[in-house]
Amino acid sequence: MMRKEGSGATGGTECSLDAAECINLQRILQAFNSTISEEHAWALFYQAARTFQKCYSEGATCYSVTEPRHVLLHKDGSVHPSTLLHPGDDSSREEITSEQQLVVNLALVIYHALDYTHSEDEERLISPDLEGLITEMTACEVPDEEDECGALSEESETS
């Protein structure tokens, strides 16, 4: 369990779990002052897709995830449903209107976490497979083509 209180010897940000035993991705990035690894990115894509699919398919009102601070990670490694379901005091978070919007935003947030400590003119090199996934997830523009664009629907999971 991660509990780093105060600014320790590394000068990091306070990292402690909230009441739901979660921490947001932004705090993790700040605490380690580092990007996430490719393995972490794959795990985040998987865990977020599972959580997002469940929340979205249940018809719950879901809110946009556009920044690493919106991604709530439970201590067991899963992405907590509150990531989508509760915008908290963040009035900038809009209601999700399509799976496509959810997929694109997830890809952008995880890419940001992969690129966290790099300067704007410095590009992070990632594996072709991960780059392909991110490209496919962000390439959609027409909502009617969701299934062809990596949507989280059950049809795309079984194909």
What do these coordinates show?
By secondary structure, the chain is mostly helical. Helices cover 40% and strands 4% of the residues. The protein has helices spanning 25-32, 38-57, 82-85, 99-114, 128-138, 154-158, and strands at 22-24, 72-74. Strands 1-2 form a two-stranded antiparallel sheet.
Comma- or semicolon-separated keywords:
mainly alpha; 159 residues; membrane; repeat; actin binding; single chain; Transferase(Phosphotransferase), domain 1; disordered C terminus; globular; cytoskeleton; cytoplasmic vesicle; 6 helices
What percent of residues are in strands? Answer: under 5%
> What would the principal axes of the Cα set say about the shape?
globular
- CATH class, named Mainly Alpha
Number of helices: 6
Q: Widest sheet: strand order?
A: 1-2
The third-level CATH topology is: Transferase(Phosphotransferase), domain 1
